[in-house]
Automatic annotation (TrEMBL):
InterPro entries: Kinase-like_dom_sf, Prot_kinase_dom, Protein_kinase_ATP_BS, Ser/Thr_kinase_AS. Keywords: ATP-binding, Kinase, Nucleotide-binding, Serine/threonine-protein kinase, Transferase. ATP binds at K68. The keyword DNA damage does not apply. Residues 39-206 form the Protein kinase domain. Transmembrane segments: none annotated. One of its GO terms (molecular function) is protein serine/threonine kinase activity. Pfam families: Pkinase. Belongs to the protein kinase superfamily. This is Protein kinase domain-containing protein. It comes from Gongylonema pulchrum.
């Protein structure tokens, strides 16, 4: 049997209404009611010019996830979702589900609480040979999988590699597929110049 609150929550979710969610020391967020019914919003963990990232907890399984809030008309995000919906690998960030309103996307993804590779390298000063070998093994494993399904990332850099948690043996996850390309055939060539200037391959900019 459902409690009164659960029944009301599902009723609101079915109507796709917007729910207001308050987080301590933060202005109230306007969120999709379907998201709020399924997940408890715990904190804002990231904020950019065009997006926000929330830390949430599933109300039934109690597992933690990250939710990215972006405009629904953002072309790179739609490209990213198209690719992530087709990939599944232990070293590639996992897409859980997407809630779409008239103007925003609420993208629920695997929680990578270990932070960026860039920050970990800076904090440590340098990687030991064993640490570098372990990181490269995971990265190349993930890239080999992506290339096997004809996906090219096109913006690989330490900032787009996240660790699953803070332990030394955490999984390294390839993220941010906004500039990625899904080829139709193995013979297809890419002609567009894209990527982060500081990391782009020299031959790409020639």
């Amino acid at each position: 049997l459902q409690s009164g609150n659960q029944a009301e929550c599902q009723k609101e979710a079915a109507s796709h209404r917007t729910a207001e969610c308050s987080i301590k020391d933060r202005p109230a967020l306007r969120l999709d009611s379907r998201l709020v019914c399924k997940y408890e919003v715990l904190a804002v963990i990231g904020k950019g010019s065009f997006s926000q990232v929330l830390r949430v907890q599933h109300r039934l399984t109690h597992k933690y996830y990250a939710v990215k809030l972006v405009s629904s008309d953002c072309g790179t995000v739609n490209n990213e979702l198209s690719i992530l919906s087709r990939v599944q690998h232990p070293f590639v960030i996992r897409l859980e589900e997407v809630f779409k309103s008239s103007s925003r996307l609420f993208i629920v993804m695997e929680m990578a609480s270990g932070g960026e590779m860039y920050d970990r390298v800076v904090a440590k000063g340098r990687y030991s040979e064993a640490e570098a070998r372990q990181a490269l093994r995971m990265l190349l494993n993930g890239l080999a999988y992506l290339h096997s399904i004809r996906v090219t990332h096109r913006d690989l850099k330490p900032e787009n590699l996240l660790y699953s948690d803070t332990t030394p043996d955490a999984r390294l996850l390839i993220t941010d597929f906004g500039l990625a390309y899904q080829a139709e055939t193995s013979q297809e060539k890419m002609t567009e110049t894209c990527g982060t200037p500081e990391y782009i391959a020299p031959e790409i900019s020639i």
